[in-house]
Amino acid sequence: MLDSGRSLLERRLIIVTGKGGTGKTTVAATLAVASARAGQRVLVVEVGRDEQIPRLFAKNPKPVGYAGRRVAPGITAMRIDPFEALSEYLGLQIRVQSVVDLVLNNAAFRQLMSATPGWRELITLGKIWHLERMRDGRGRPRYDLIVVDAPATGHGVTFLDAPRVVVSAVRAGPLRRQAFEVETLIEDPERCVLLPVALAEELPARETAELVERLTGEVGVAVERVIVNAVVAEPFSEQLADLDDRLSRLAASGGSVHPELPASSTLALCASYLKSRSALNRHYVDVIGRLTGLPLTLLPQLTNGVRTSADLETLSSAFFRGADA
User: In CATH, what number is assigned to the domain containing residue 223?
Assistant: First the structure.
């Protein structure tokens, strides 16, 4: 796990996706923390309507917007708005920003674009491609690693497949060249890798397996492992592995654990629940591994969830010391 996990940070681009609610945004932020701890300059990109990443680093943060800003040492965050990306792209092509603004501020044009499929995905990925190519004054990449918090599973394939569709449909011109460059980046396993995020539950397990199959078969993006998030740990130590049985026997005999504690029957039910929940989690971890055929990286469930940057540090450490399932 250690070597495989750290090799992720040697890529130029990591695209994180997964079913809604699996914690893919948290995983993206965790990777950013790990990258920064390794001395890299990392950019975290969000493509949704709401900014989630800054809230993981500070309470009541100021928006990062399209321009982006530093949210932690070594970590910059930004949100790509498709219309802002389109404005930037057209400005580079036409070189007269006033004309671009006139067109993009036209209500009819915006309505037409909103109804046009695929352009949002393509222009967003084009901006990510542009960010990957940016260099500093010394000719080095401006960012050592770019982590993209991609759309959820339902839209993830469409998002990543847009360049291939354009290359297939458009025979010549700047649009095809741009789409081809983006497609080349996404399909280069040395530069780009996709990380599906799942929970150890039935529906996320099956959706993750379907996502991996479609991405590797239709899009051609490298998928090396699956991140299984919020895995419930074994509730009892090895010496107390049968604690639920002990409590059940104690309850049956009418005994109590301690006068100030709940009744032994209540404690027995709680212990049984914790043990069965952990066992169910482990079952679906095995299911995900079997259905995808990929190594798994397990991230623990944090008791109070992920609320601060310190929680991200905890997950970052767990990311690299966890064993493959």
Answer: 3.40.50.300
